Amino acid sequence: MIDIGISKMALIGAVALIVIGPEKLPRVARTVGTLLGKAQRYVSDVKAEVNRSMDLDELRKMKETVEGAAHEVHNSIQTSASDFEKQWSTTDSGTGNADSLAAPAEPYVSYPSYKHPKKNFRLKQGATPQWYKARSGVRTKALSGAARVARYRPSKIN
């Protein structure tokens, strides 16, 4: 890039002061600064767009390789399944030992799905255990105003 040191900047400033004049120099400097800022933003946007396109190309290549591997796995599974079906059909029909290979004739038993014993989404369960609250003296039951008055009313002394 351009090698600009402090001495070159001072020389450019002195020439600009002589050519432009002291009255217009601040406005020109502001304009030059805004133009340089816009140019830097434009360059950074172009760099970001190029990086995005490069990343997109890499992702497309990766997608193609993954799809190719998945297709190969799918083909190998289908060929092994067809080989298995051929072997099964020859074993079933050719040897006569199909009864020994067949599963026992037990009725199908359906079991209910697993339900976690503590899963009740309607109940709010706090993060602090009850034993800790009891030990530290934290109130766990809320009292209404009337119940509180009845409970803590001073006893009558006669």
TrEMBL record:
Subunit structure comment from the entry = The Tat system comprises two distinct complexes: a TatABC complex, containing multiple copies of TatA, TatB and TatC subunits, and a separate TatA complex, containing only TatA subunits. Substrates initially bind to the TatABC complex, which probably triggers association of the separate TatA complex to form the active translocon.
Function text? Part of the twin-arginine translocation (Tat) system that transports large folded proteins containing a characteristic twin-arginine motif in their signal peptide across membranes. Together with TatC, TatB is part of a receptor directly interacting with Tat signal peptides. TatB may form an oligomeric binding site that transiently accommodates folded Tat precursor proteins before their translocation.
> What PANTHER family does the entry give?
SEC-INDEPENDENT PROTEIN TRANSLOCASE PROTEIN TATA, CHLOROPLASTIC
Output this protein's name. Answer: Sec-independent protein translocase protein TatB
Q: What is the lineage of its organism?
A: Bacteria, Pseudomonadati, Pseudomonadota, Betaproteobacteria, Burkholderiales
Where is the sequence biased in composition, kind Polar residues?
Answer: 80-98
Q: Where is this region: Disordered?
A: 80-100
**GO BP annotations listed:** protein transport by the Tat complex
Q: How does it sit in the membrane?
A: Single-pass membrane protein
Q: Where in the cell is it found?
A: Cell membrane; Membrane
- Kindly give the Pfam families that the UniProt entry links to this protein: TatA_B_E (PF02416)
Q: What InterPro entries is this protein classified in? A: TatA/B/E, TatB
Q: Does the keyword Protein transport apply?
A: yes
Q: What Gene Ontology molecular function terms does this protein carry?
A: protein transmembrane transporter activity
Query: What family name appears in the similarity comment?
Result: Belongs to the TatB family.
Which HAMAP family has this protein been placed in?
A: TatB
Which Gene Ontology cellular component annotation is one that this UniProt entry carries? Answer: TAT protein transport complex
